[in-house]
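hey
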């Protein structure tokens, strides 16, 4: 993979461009004229252990940095700068905390019903209708008596009055970013089991013929040649919006946060609309109240 400008992700160019905040040219073409045309900005953002639980809570890592009120206000400023219509977020403990970033006067918050700290959720702008489906709880492939559990997937349909879009928000198992799916390490074996669950969900949407997308923290450097992605495509083509690019987040890295489009949603994608909102700080140590992930966005024109 290469950067958003197809250069080395840690090159001088990418570091300079990262400082600008937004990368890639503006949307390649303006929206079609007419009442039916509407461009929707879709984003995914891992917010890095956003919780109000006290230090020492057994569900938290002992060295976890807790956000200050000032840090939450800073994150809210970045959320306002992001200015997206639909934000799939990860690692948030409660709707109340999500509302600190995505205010109720503009967004409706929907979150998974599992009991982990790192829940997934969705912030949906006013004017869009949300239909909730059962959580994809099968993504928690651990046994019921496991001391810790994996995140479930949030499954919703968004409707703007003329078209609908099925959305699944995921946060998959960490620890197998590049290894073969047959790797016998526990993290890779767990991720392979989650792949089967995700593949089944995508196959159902392909069979139904509905426009859909899957987004979130895959904890995987997906590429078109990755067997993980190829298995997801087994029942029909998908658009991997981050394909061939690398992220400028925190100076340059490879994407693990992805947005995948299926069925009609593939045709709704604005060419070259991939964006990464970077932080003003150059080093995560300079801004501990931010996140170790940057928001990743694309533009869709729903008919």
């Amino acid at each position: 993979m290469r950067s958003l400008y197809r250069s080395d992700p840690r090159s001088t160019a990418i570091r300079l461009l990262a400082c600008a905040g937004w990368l890639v040219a503006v949307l390649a073409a303006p929206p079609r004229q007419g009442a039916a045309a509407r461009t929707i900005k879709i984003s995914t953002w891992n917010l890095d252990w956003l919780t109000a639980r006290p230090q020492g809570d057994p569900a938290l890592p002992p060295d976890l940095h807790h956000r200050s009120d000032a840090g939450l206000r800073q994150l809210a400023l970045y959320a306002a700068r992001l200015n997206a219509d639909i934000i799939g977020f990860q690692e948030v403990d409660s709707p109340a905390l999500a509302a600190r970033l995505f205010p109720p006067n503009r967004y409706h918050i929907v979150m998974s019903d599992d009991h982990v700290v790192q829940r997934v959720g969705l912030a949906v702008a006013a004017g869009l209708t949300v239909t909730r489906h059962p959580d994809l709880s099968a993504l928690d492939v651990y046994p019921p008596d496991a001391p810790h559990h994996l995140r479930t997937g949030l499954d919703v349909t968004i409707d703007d009055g003329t078209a609908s879009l099925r959305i699944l928000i995921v946060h998959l198992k960490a620890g197998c970013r590049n290894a073969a799916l047959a790797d016998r390490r526990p993290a890779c074996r767990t991720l392979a089991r989650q792949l089967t669950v995700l593949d089944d969900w995508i196959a159902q949407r392909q069979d139904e013929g509905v426009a859909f997308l899957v987004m979130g923290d895959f904890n995987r450097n997906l590429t078109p040649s990755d067997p993980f992605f190829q298995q997801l495509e087994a029942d029909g083509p998908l658009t991997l919006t981050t394909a061939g690019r690398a992220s400028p987040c925190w100076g340059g890295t490879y994407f693990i946060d992805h947005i995948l489009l299926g069925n009609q949603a593939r045709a709704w994608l604005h060419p070259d609309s991939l964006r990464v909102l970077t932080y003003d700080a150059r080093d995560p140590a300079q801004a501990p109240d931010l996140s170790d992930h940057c928001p990743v966005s694309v533009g869709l024109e729903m008919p």
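The first strand starts at residue 38 and ends at 50. Helices lie at 12-18, 69-82, 95-101, 186-208, 227-232, 265-268.
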